[in-house]
Amino acid sequence: MPELCKGENTAVGSGRVTAELHTVGTPVDLSALLVAADGKVRSDDDLVFYNQPLAESGAVRHLAADGQGPERIEMDPSALPADVDRVVLVGSCDPDDTTCTFREVKEVQIRAFQHGADPVRFHPPTLIDGERAVLLMELYRRGPTWKLRAIGQGYANGLAGLATDFGIQVEESPGPSAADQSDTEESVSTPAVATTPLVPGPATPVATMTSPMNLRKPPLGKISLDKGSQVSMDLDKNDRELVVTASLEWDGGSARRRSLGADLDLYALFVPASKALRGKMAPGTLVKSRHVAKGEPLRAGAAVPATVPRTAKKGKGADVVYYKRLGSVKTRPFIRLDGDSRVPGRESLRIVRPDEQGYVLLCAYSALSNGIGSFRSFGAKVVITDGRGSTVTVPLYEDTKTRYWVAIALVDFTAADGAAIHHIEAYSARMTERRPVLHPDGTIEMNAGPVEFKRR
């Protein structure tokens, strides 16, 4: 795979070019700018990103991370108009979290490829001076030829500042809602009778105003995760009114299946922010029994050892919320289970104070009285919502029988842009009653926790 150094370039064909963003650590957003020969965009329509995924009828297209791959930009050079001189690819930190910089991003790589050709990759230099955005790579014209150039230039003022430098008008803060505007207008008193007759004058031309570009991420809407995939739910970590609801839902499957027993239980294994580590392994990674959690504390200065002994938190004292330990939303752990349902339906827990959360692993337990049916045969799934327009369903895909535990979803609150929701679907060993274990670095170990039978 050809690798470019900063400033180097290589020729590409006229076919569609796909650029993928790969990162380790704090998430980074990928966007593109269509730039004219004067170094500026032609209009605000030339910014392609999560809020505006298309430009020039799809000649440049933004694709969110999904089961097909990471976040990416697709570019069709042959479909670009003559006044577009280049397409600049940009990586940026969450615009809603001004404390996040590229210092927290352990690795950044941009890969660009065309059908039938070797991919081209570029690792920008390490950015440690407070940069919140970086120019990664550009696709540009040289006569009849198109080339890719590695850039690697950082910006301290993030996507908003970078976009402004290229001529984009960026919205500084959300405008008032229609209801707020109505209330404001009604509160202003106006005279009941005009003291001077109003004489119509010549019509005044009305200037066309362009609304500033809104960089705030939109709600996810309703989505369902593919097997092994993940999605980021944008959250304000300091929002004291925010409630994330996670529910285990199941309908019991068939009438026969329900008659045999369908008592499932929702467990939330959690690592609070005060104990969480950012490790080398991605959160949600399944590890073996000899795993030792290592990493940097999530909170600077927190009294968390860089290495957590293997035996820590594997016994009955592990951090968990379930039907015997309902938790609380008023005090730690700021997680509470609403109750125990012994019939098909729903068990829900509420998670508040996202700033106090590290990792939350959502698991389901099938009571022995249910027999050997698979979790999928019960119609089991997890549904996570922020109550603000984002609802993520995490389904099950495997028909695994004689398993009493399944780790379904990991909610990673250490993500800079809110919470990353991972599809896990990891099952306990056959006929094993041991609960899963969530390590301080967000990794998961199956068949390692305590055994606790639930009886009728």
UniProtKB/TrEMBL annotation:
InterPro entries, per database record: Stress/Tellurium_Resist, TerD
Location of the TerD domain: 20-166
Region Disordered: start-end pairs: 170-221
Similarity annotation: Belongs to the CAPAB/TerDEXZ family.
Protein name per Swiss-Prot or TrEMBL: TerD family protein
Organism of provenance: Streptomyces yanii
